[in-house]
Amino acid sequence: MAEFDMHKIRKDFPALSQQVYGKDLIYFDNGATSQKPQSVIDAISTYYSKDNSNIHRGVHYLSQLATTQYEEARKTIQKYINAEFEEEVLFTKGTTDGINLVAFSFGEMLNAGDEVIISAMEHHSNIVPWQMLCERKGCVLRVIPITQEGELKMDEFHSFLSEKTKLVSVTHISNTLGTINPVEEIITAAHAVGAKVLLDGAQSIQHMKVDMQALDCDFYTFSGHKVFGPTGVGILYGKKDILNAMPPYQGGGDMIAKVTFEKTTYNELPHKFEAGTPNISGGICLGTAIDYLSSFDIDELEAYEQELVEYAETEIKKIEAVRIIGTAKKKTSVVSFVVEGTHPFDIGTLLDKQGIAVRTGHHCTQPLMDFFEIPGTVRASFAFYNTKEEIDIFITALKRSVKMLL
Ligand SMILES: *Cc1c(COP(=O)(O)O)cnc(C)c1O
């Protein structure tokens, strides 16, 4: 295992050192949301205790202070994801909001017969907005199929591409299978036919280095709450030229340059896409979360989490009647499984009573469950504050639960 001061790291996250049902909490539901470090919790409290004020419009001290902090957070995030320009970083409510923004606004520029490509392993939030767009505009949705291992069938993807393809929107890492998709290949191939690429980064930013300029994706979106920050805030990165060409998403305050009843002109980026009073504290504290994450070597965290996943998989596989769902060669952060002859909900409930938080069900990927012909999975999803010792306790509890049910 890599060298971390795990004792100190875990102390940074107060929620981790509590008991549920009289047992030490083991939090393996990081795919749904992450716990928050004390620095983020303190920043939320400080903001509301002292700095609270509306941004971008006040002459007074507090308004300017809040504006500066909010814009500093944007810069922190820009730097972290290596976006070329600050105004390419848009604050949103989260991943879902970011994808809907692109589906609506970029979607306004599409015509009947244009094609959008997604994949069979997408989260509902990267399926439904595109179905809505296709209904609105008469576009065609194509779905890259996957193998039994949970990898994209790349030959089929390549065969879908044509001058009709306008956008490819795929998840960087599957929240259900843990598959790391070959996004570099996807981006290069999509660009070759003039299509843009959106990456759903909800499961990647917290697990690996993401570099907008190196990836060369056109859009990338993630949620604050899955990267150790608050809920209700997220980021949509978009290339400046494309964002400039897109019409606004929502109308209101902040997104305008001048309003008259005859004609309204729109504000510049990023404000054009940030109508209304945003989640100010959320944005500032997402910056704090990214600062916290930046205090580590992300490559080391990734390697450590890789070891956790491999260890968990090896141990889970030893248990009879357990089948792992998602066995891609490149995967991280997630182990999904079913226990033959049991329902995921029952396993989840028994684990919960032993202090272990996992997720059960379809994980907002119902079409993927249909593909595997299962109602759902039990999903253990890890963060860098999890340990091998926790996995050992989990395995013992899982064995006990399986024995009780079979
Ligand atoms: C969580 C998640 C989403 C949705 O994120 P929200 O925070 O609910 O908007 C989208 N895609 C993936 C892969 C996710 O894991």
Question: Can you walk me through this structure?
Answer:
The protein is an alpha/beta fold. The chain folds into two domains: 6-30 and 298-405, Alpha-Beta Complex (Aspartate Aminotransferase, domain 1), CATH 3.90.1150.10; 41-294, Type I PLP-dependent aspartate aminotransferase-like (Major domain) (Aspartate Aminotransferase, domain 2, 3-Layer(aba) Sandwich). Helix content is 39%, strand content 17%. It has helices at residues 6-12, 38-51, 61-81, 95-105, 128-137, 154-160, 183-192, 212-215, 240-245, 280-294, 298-317, 344-353, 366-372, 388-405, and strands at 19-20, 23-24, 26-27, 89-92, 115-119, 140-144, 165-171, 196-200, 219-223, 234-238, 256-259, 264-266, 322-325, 334-339, 356-357, 359-361, 377-381. The strands form five sheets. It has a seven-stranded mixed sheet, with helices on both faces. The chain has a four-stranded antiparallel sheet with strand order 13-14-17-16, with helices on one face. Strand 13 and strand 14 (334-339) form a beta hairpin. Helix 3 crosses helix 10 (280-294). The two termini are 34 Å apart. The mean pLDDT is 97. Pyridoxal-5'-phosphate (PLP) binds at residues 94-96, 123, 125-126, 171, 175, 200, 202-203, 223.
